[in-house]
Amino acid sequence: MTPRLLHHVDAIARVLVPALLGIVLVIVSTIPFHIPWFGPVTPNFVLIAIFFWGVHRIYFFSNITVFFIGLLLDILVGTPPGLNAIVLVLVRNIAVSQAKVFRGKPFLVLWLGFGLISFVTGAVIWALNAIYHMTLVDPLPIVFQMAMTFTVFPLLAWLFARTQRKLFQQT
Fold first, then answer.
1. What gap in Å lies between CA 7 and CA 11, rounded to an integer?
2. Contact call for residues 48 and 153 (beta carbons, < 8 A)
3. Residue 31 φ/ψ, nearest 5 degrees
4. CA end-to-end span of the chain
């Protein structure tokens, strides 16, 4: 392979990393852990990825990519088609619009901002589920899921930051 071709392959791989990580997290989200009562409150790993990459790599995670990742999540988890897709696109747009607020600030600001967005996202998911099923749905599973998501955020953010530093140090 020529150096120029290697450079192009490398550039394409770097652009695809956030989307591929999103797809991997969709698959991880669907793995049964066989822990009692853990199924309904599994952290929303995909939400963390969408938010993180929406803040730090705006152009590598388009709305179309996020929509299809959300649709894949809907299909694999069994939620109403399009529910997660729409919510994740909204989260990405919020993250992109507030990226200047979060970038360059202490991690605590990013984490608290994510916490606010995750709990609002949980409320939106709960409301859309209630509308879809035409009945009030128990809000506790989504509250616990968002609490777990908020709790796991620092670990995944650290992994994503290391990935970003490794892959994008030349850009």
1. 6
2. yes
3. -75, 125
4. 22
User: Helix 83-97 to helix 63-77 angle, to the nearest 10 degrees?
Assistant: 150
- Residue 89 CA to residue 59 CA, distance in Å, equals 14
pLDDT tens per residue across span 62-82: 899 999 999 999 999 888 999
Are 100 and 59 contacting, i.e. CB atoms less than 8 angstroms apart?
no
Report CA 49 to chain centroid distance, whole Å: 3
Helix spans in the chain (H): 3-29, 45-56, 63-77, 83-97, 99-102, 107-133, 140-168
- For 58-63, the CB contacts below 8 A with 24+ separation are 58/96, 58/99, 60/15, 60/17, 60/18, 60/19, 61/18, 61/19, 61/22, 61/92, 63/89, 63/92, 63/93
Write the pLDDT tens digit of every residue in 3-61: 787 777 777 777 788 888 889 999 988 887 777 766 667 889 999 999 999 998 888 78
Amino acid present at 62: S
Map residue 90 onto helix, strand or coil. Answer: helix
